[in-house]
Amino acid sequence: MGNTIRALIALVPTSGCQNYLLGELQEMPLDKMVDLSSSQLRRFPLRVCSFRELVKLYLSDNNLSSLPPELEQLQNLQILALDFNNFKALPRVVCTLRQLCILYLGNNKLRDLPPELSWLQNLRTLWLENNSLTQLPDVVCELSLLKTLHAGSNALRLLPRQLSRLQELRTIWLSGNLLSDFPAVLLHMPFLEVIDVDRNNISHFPSLLHLAGLKLVIYDHNPCRNAPKVAKGVRRVGRWAEETPEPDPRKARRLRMAKEEEAEEAQAAAPPAPPPLPPPAGEDP
Questions:
Q1: Which residues, at least 6 apart from 60, have a Cβ–Cβ distance to it below 8 Å?
Q2: DSSP E strand boundaries for 169-209
Q3: pLDDT of 200-249, one tens digit each?
């Protein structure tokens, strides 16, 4: 009953209804965080825009499809969660929040992202999973400080070549898409530490031996005929993952030569074999 009442009240944009939705929130919270997740919101409570020093704003799991232009007043915002809503397009006002470091947009109905997203040059983490993206928007490649990109459970078939510009990118999550080939651009990103291409349509994996920063590759649930070759110490999750990863061939050669040299030195340093003992008396030699 409580959720039903909140859903009805959320439709009425009067100050009294807004106050009910905000509960006891009358002034700026000491922790500079407002969490209105799962509040049955259909309209954004405008009073929140008066909290100019707000750093974290969670609006997850509501019924929002738009945001007011007054949101631009929150210029200190660093974390904004808009996941599990009804956004078909990202409101342009979000792109004016230039201090954002983490932006949650998962589980909406997004088909694209506005070019103004490039204004968010402080963005480190971007969540886009479970949307309706058929291609990764080129504007993502302009987020120069991006470290983590979650783009799983969309309908991606390839990645833009410009993605290699993101030299701060360390983890990329692409599970549950429509990739039929391992994205070639990732082969030119040696700084990547985690690559997740689980649950795609990849039938063959190229060697990943040269990706010096790689620590984990997840490739399970693909119709592949081979496991990706990785350097020693890189963890693999998928078919044949329990097999020993391919070592660096140069290191393997140096190790083999060192072992051969050790064996030769040990043989040269070994004392000569003692002469055979004479046969006991009474026995023929």
A1: 37, 38, 81, 82, 83, 84, 85, 104
A2: 171-173, 194-196
A3: 999 999 999 999 999 999 999 999 999 999 999 999 999 988 876 655 55
Residue 58: which of 14, 20, 25, 88 has the closest Cα?
25
257 sits in which H/E element: helix 249-269
| Cβ atoms of 101 and 81 closer than 8 Å | no
Sheet holding 33-35, edge to edge: 33-35, 56-58, 79-81, 102-104, 125-127, 148-150, 171-173, 194-196, 216-218, 235-237
- What are residue 110's DSSP bridge partners? none
Mean pLDDT on 132-144: 97
CB-based contact 46:23 (threshold 8 Å): no
User: Which CATH number does 28-260 carry?
Assistant: 3.80.10.10
Task: Locate the domains of the chain by residue range.
Answer: 28-260
List beta partners, residue 79: 56, 102
Residue 204 backbone dihedrals phi, psi, to 5 degrees: -145, 140
Q: How far is it, in rounded angstroms, from Cα 103 to Cα 145?
A: 13
63 in Cβ contact with 10 (< 8 Å): yes
- Which residues lie closer than 8 Å to 103 by C-beta, 6 or more apart? 80, 82, 94, 120, 123, 125, 126, 127
pLDDT in tens, 242-265: 876 655 555 556 656 666 666 666
